[in-house]
Amino acid sequence: xxxxxxxxxxxxxxxxxxxxxxxxxxxxxxxxxxxxxxxxxxxxxxxxxxxxxxxxxxxxxxxxxxxxxxxxxxxxxxxxxxxxxxxxxxxxxxxxxxxxxxxxxxxxxxxxxxxxxxxxxxxxxxxxxxxxxxxxxxxxxxxxxxxxxxxxxxxxxxxxxxxxxxxxxxxxxxxxxxxxxxxxxxxxxxxxxxxxxxxxxxxxxxxxxxxxxxxxxxxxxxxxxxxxxxxxxxxxxxxxxxxxxxxxxxxxxxxxxxxxxxxxxxxxxxxxxxxxxxxxxxxxxxxxxxxxxxxxxxxxxxxxxxxxxxxxxxxxxxxxxxxxxxxxxxxxxxxxxxxxxxxxxxxx
Length: 348
Fold this sequence. Notes:
The chain is α+β, with helices and mostly antiparallel strands and 348 residues long. It is built from eleven helices and ten strands.
């Protein structure tokens, strides 16, 4: 018990550096970090601001070069590959997924009705998450098994009716990429997106690989009890092939903003394909969310969270402004929100 009290007290001493009175971005970041993880950071054109610590029991500011799991920001990379295949005439958005993957979307779902676009836009009705997939003997998972295991789950809605977020849908999309290209989906994302853009700090992990490149941001699960923090490290706790094309990738605050700026700037897919990605249903396009800004206009991007204890968001504007935010725990429902931090960094 004495050791626990010592640890908790030590964590309480690791706080954010005092913000300047006129630094509104630092102020909102500090308020966000007070409800989020042990640390938080926001990276924008004006620099990187940090609060708290990247590792408990140490005073280690988070930097724009720290690697972390980007979670569902992976989906934007996955969707970008599909839109490249659309540009090449190898995939059509508004045709049934059964044309490309016969016999895959079955059971409680009808692959003859659910389209590629609906899978990309979370309007397919597929269940949100995999529950009972069988791992390989080495603990890894195949896309085929992940998808198969979800086909007996009840649908969230009828296809095309409403937006219901589905990680399973993006696992199906991963299978689509592999069927069309004949390569592992992660390799295709690397060859088509990561390498051409020079994203040297961004990675799609091989099955069984859990380590983050150094330097990395430690991830934690846990929470708070009043002023006390209780964290358990989870940086390498999960098998990433379970999330695959729905959420397995890693990056840094600097690399991830470079990706989204390249995408919105027209350097990843054609103008016509980018327009399709930005056609929204309830403010969500094809792995691009439209976010209104307090200073006027909108930004585009995506958030991501994983049980590794990383929660992040990247937003960019058509005129090149950007903000990428990370905290080292899963922290939904904070006030201010992670979106408010990015908005302040873009608008402030």
